[in-house]
Design brief:
The protein is built from ten helices and no strands. Helix 1 packs parallel to helix 9 and helix 6 packs antiparallel against helix 10. The longest helix is centred in the C-terminal third of the chain and has 34 residues.
Length: 212
């Protein structure tokens, strides 16, 4: 089991990593602008579950495989980017109906399980976070102990900090969206911006290479 000092040090490192704008934060902002606070917060929860799944994968040896295999990295990248592009296009296509429903007091939202699933898929298919965690987590693990168990203990620390950080971003972005909700035209534009952010994020993920 990792010591309290190790857990604290890993928590600080996690906070720094999460504070750097990346796919999860940009995706959260996009969902907050296009679908609102509830959707964004559920997305954050799903994303944290996806990252936790990555950490479980690391604990059983998946991380080194992704880090070493260009093919595995590329497949995961394409899956994640494709899903982001799909969600972004859907948000753009339905921005007018969403804006009219919101302004009319009948804001639409996805079922809870769908919103969680969207966040989970984006989180679990983010190859950069997987490679990054594969590089960072071992620095806080005692190789003489049970490495898998230590990873499983440290993993929830990262997930909880991600929930707090991304959740704060979701609340702030949704407040910005609510400010525009008095006008269908402005709300439609905000929903379109959210969709474009997700499309841009997916396209950017497709063209970026492996981290060094």
């Amino acid at each position: 089991m990792p010591s309290l000092a190790t857990v604290f040090a890993f928590a600080l490192a996690s906070a720094v990593i999460i504070a750097i704008p990346g796919p999860s934060i940009l995706f959260t902002i996009g969902r907050a602008l296009s679908a609102g606070r509830r959707e964004a917060l559920l997305t954050v929860a799903g994303n944290a579950l996806g990252v936790q799944t990555q950490i479980i994968g690391l604990a059983v040896g998946l991380g080194p495989v992704i880090a070493a295999s260009a093919t595995a990295y590329t497949v995961l990248k394409i899956l994640g980017a494709g899903y982001l592009l799909y969600l972004g296009v859907q948000a753009i296509r339905h921005r007018r109906a969403t804006a009219q429903a919101l302004v009319g007091g009948l804001a639409t939202s996805s079922p809870t399980v769908h919103a969680l699933r969207n966040g989970f898929v984006v989180g679990v298919t983010n190859p950069k976070s997987l490679v990054l965690l594969a590089a960072v987590l071992p620095q806080f693990v005692d190789p003489g102990g049970r490495v898998g168990l230590q990873l499983l203990v440290l993993g929830p620390v990262f997930a909880v900090i991600a929930l707090a950080g991304d959740g704060t971003v979701a609340l702030l972005a949704s407040r910005f969206r609510d400010w525009f909700a008095s006008s269908p035209r402005r709300m439609e534009r905000v929903g379109g911006v959210g969709g474009l952010m997700m499309v841009g994020l997916g396209a950017g993920l497709l063209v970026t290479g492996r981290p060094d």
